[in-house]
Amino acid sequence: MKELVISHPDNDIATKNILKRIEEISNIKMVKIERSEQEKLGTARNHAITLANGEYICIWDDDDWYDSTRISHQYAVLKNGPFKASILLNVLLYNALSNKTYYSDYQQLAGTLLCEKQTLLQTSYLNQEKREDIYIIQYLTSQNVLFRIIDMPHLYVHIYHGDNTMGERHFHLSSMLLRVMEENTNSQVQEVTDLNQYVLIQ
Hints:
Blueprint: E1 3-9, H1 13-25, E2 29-35, H2 41-51, E3 56-58, E4 65-66, H3 70-76, E5 85-88, E6 91-95, E7 100-104, E8 114-116, H4 117-120, H5 136-142, E9 146-149, E10 156-160, H6 167-175, E11 179-180, H7 183-192
Parallel strand pairs: 1-2, 5-9, 6-10
Antiparallel strand pairs: 3-8, 4-10, 5-8, 6-7, 7-11
């Protein structure tokens, strides 16, 4: 069984309204955490992990897109094996401002992490708003419990929309080193990331 753990600032009325609507039309199990506006993202992540009831924690950033089979693929490589966590090494990066999609080679993005809760509790996110996850992957690597999944970029699309935490400079520096995807893939990414198709039923 899956559980959705959502942490948001207590003054975020839009998110409150969305969660209320989701509860009206869905039976999904949710843990809702309203935090102080001043609380740093890293601390919010740590708190959410502590309150989660599942055996595994799957990181899910609200401004990126994930394939519906992402969790099952990442869990499959851990089930009955020695590893405690998995990440995607190849992902797609989509610039929503220029409408271009890029293929990313071998980036250990903490935003694609699936990890056993007890293992994740042995480390923590930093109490800061940016780069709060820089030591998470290092810790899992040092413990030799991290499985790296290659050649499945369709499971995750990192979206640059102009208001990302890391900012425009970070995205452009990254994209300079990446391969631009062909128009067919670019069109598919544009289609699945189009927010108009995800409007909640009235």
